């Protein structure tokens, strides 16, 4: 994990510039759509440079974590520029969170679980800290169901792995289910490569990740 964090520390200097074409063309629109659904006490996993901060509803309390000091420095600068007092930023590993069980009303992840080294472990941690009945909002890119659409992903995968440790071929929707979440809605935003996934932690589940019916 330390090696991946160092890659992002270095990359943080040009990260926003690197992603700016996709951000202007599509990602900012996707973020606005996803973040409008956040409520209450929110955990953002992998907050990065804070690109989501402008899109949160004004009445939420946000705790943002990231494993990269460089990325958090950029996020803190953005927080100050936006004048946000309801945002707290913490250096923390998504795979080993330091929060109590059932702490957050909403968990948010945008383009993160393509990078977490052990995605199932990270997703189970997200599940653990979400309150029963709480909502998880995942805006993620992942492997397509189409072999044709996967061709460019296979081409890009070794480049992105080397650059920042990102896999273009994760089956994130299946991983979310494996972690115990109940998926309520899936919206394909860019074919089925970029998906907005809304999931819940069943309200009867306080101690483990076994799926139980919502009461």
From TrEMBL:
<dbReference type="GO" id="GO:0008757">
    <property type="term" value="F:S-adenosylmethionine-dependent methyltransferase activity"/>
</dbReference>
<dbReference type="InterPro" id="IPR029063">
    <property type="entry name" value="SAM-dependent_MTases_sf"/>
</dbReference>
<protein>
    <submittedName>
        <fullName>Type 11 methyltransferase</fullName>
    </submittedName>
</protein>
<dbReference type="Pfam" id="PF08241">
    <property type="entry name" value="Methyltransf_11"/>
</dbReference>
<dbReference type="InterPro" id="IPR052356">
    <property type="entry name" value="Thiol_S-MT"/>
</dbReference>
<keyword id="KW-0808">Transferase</keyword>
<keyword id="KW-0489">Methyltransferase</keyword>
<feature type="domain" description="Methyltransferase type 11">
    <location>
        <begin position="43"/>
        <end position="138"/>
    </location>
</feature>
<dbReference type="InterPro" id="IPR013216">
    <property type="entry name" value="Methyltransf_11"/>
</dbReference>
<dbReference type="GO" id="GO:0032259">
    <property type="term" value="P:methylation"/>
</dbReference>
């Amino acid at each position: 994990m330390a090696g991946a964090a160092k890659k992002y520390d270095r990359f943080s200097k040009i990260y926003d510039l690197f992603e700016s074409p996709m951000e202007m063309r599509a990602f900012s629109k996707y973020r606005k759509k996803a973040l409008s659904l956040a409520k209450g006490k929110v955990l953002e996993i992998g907050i990065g440079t804070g690109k989501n901060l402008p899109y949160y509803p004004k009445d939420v309390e946000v705790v943002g974590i990231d494993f990269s000091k460089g990325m958090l420095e950029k996020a803190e600068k953005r927080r100050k520029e936006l004048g946000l007092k309801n945002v707290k930023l913490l250096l923390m590993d998504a795979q080993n969170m330091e929060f109590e069980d059932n702490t957050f009303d909403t968990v948010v992840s945008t383009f993160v679980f393509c990078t977490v080294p052990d995605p199932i472990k990270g997703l189970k941690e997200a599940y653990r800290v979400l309150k029963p009945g709480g909502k998880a909002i995942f805006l993620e890119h992942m492997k397509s169901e189409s072999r044709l659409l996967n061709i460019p992903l296979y081409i890009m995968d070794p480049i992105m792995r080397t650059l920042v440790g990102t896999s273009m071929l994760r089956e994130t929707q299946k991983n979310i289910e494996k972690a115990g979440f109940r998926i309520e809605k899936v919206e394909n935003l860019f074919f089925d490569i970029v998906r907005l996934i809304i999931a819940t932690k069943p309200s009867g589940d306080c101690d483990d990740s076994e799926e139980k019916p919502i009461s």
